[in-house]
Amino acid sequence: MRRALALMVSMLLAGCHQAPPPPASGQTVDPRHYASFYLWPGVSPSADLRPKLLYLLDGEVRRGGPPRFLRLRPGVPKLSPTPLWLVVRVERLDWNESVEAALIADLDRWRVAGNNVVGLQVDFDAATHGIGRYRQFLTNLRARLPAQWRLSITGLMDWSAHGDPQELRALRSVIDEVVIQTYQGRQTIPGYEAYFRKMRGFPIPFRVALVQGGAWNPPTDLARERAFLGYVVFLMRTTH
Asked: How far apart are the C-alpha atoms of 81 and 183, rounded to whole Å?
């Protein structure tokens, strides 16, 4: 298992040349035109990708029972020097000290293995009207994370249209970035253009997450937004 995982990683990281720019007109999302990727366990990426940044799902905090961190990866491959975020998928916010300790231990575990770990990303679908409560949770988490680790979150497109501007500005002081999700399942959410017209002046550094094979027509002026950091493609399971 570990040998197969190492082979997959070596294929993923083969080469280091710059990926071509994303297409300028509406097409399906082709990962070969991008350089940042979400990689879930069990996904086999093609060998022609040239990652510059990775988001790796490390584990989950699920509903039901006492809060606990469920690790999803059996081992720790060495991906250095590619920068990577460890992602925890979250269904609840009533964490305890053991959850936080397990996450911090995993960040250290991946670093000690020789990886260029950037920090932790919390993947939680916080409702727009609940941003204030979510910010309080993230503030507590940030206070417990060692200073060397950055903090990223995922966010909904609706935050740009209906989020409380004051809460969003306050969130900026807690996190380093938000990755805006544009898809549900394997499909791009229809009408995404209208949401991105509201992104002008968004107060938090943000990336835009696209789904492999989904529809995408880059919104007007998105690339010129000062807070826009680029795209991340969610890779789907690949058959060979």
From this structure: 29
The owner of tokens 């082709």 is 30
pLDDT 10s digits, 150-168: 999 999 999 988 889 999 9
Q: Which of 39, 202, 35, 57 is nearest to 121 (CA)?
A: 57
SS3 label, residue 131: helix
Tokens of 7: 């082979």
Residue 8, pLDDT score? 41
So what's the pLDDT on residue 44? Answer: 67
Query: What's the residue count for the chain?
Result: 240
Which tokens belong to 51? Answer: 């990652």
Q: Which two structure tokens, joined as six digits, stand for 76?
A: 């720790």
Maximum CA extent, the chain = 49
- 46/99 Cα distance (integer angstroms): 33
Residue 228: pLDDT over 80: yes
Among residues 37, 121, 113, 123, which one has the least CA distance to residue 75?
A: 113
What is the rounded average pLDDT of the residues 97-121?
Answer: 97
List, for residues 9-50, the tens digit of each pLDDT value.
443 433 333 334 444 445 899 999 999 999 999 886 788 998
The answer, yes or no, to whether residue 213 has pLDDT greater than 80, is: yes
DSSP structure class, residue 107: H
User: 163 and 178 in contact (C-beta within 8 Å)?
Assistant: no
What SS3 class is residue 166? helix
Cα(174)–Cα(195) distance, rounded to whole angstroms?
24
* Of residues 75, 72, 77, the one with CA closest to residue 89: 72
- Inter-residue contact 92 to 61 (CB < 8 Å): yes
Question: Residue 27 corresponds to which tokens in the numbers above?
Answer: 């097409």
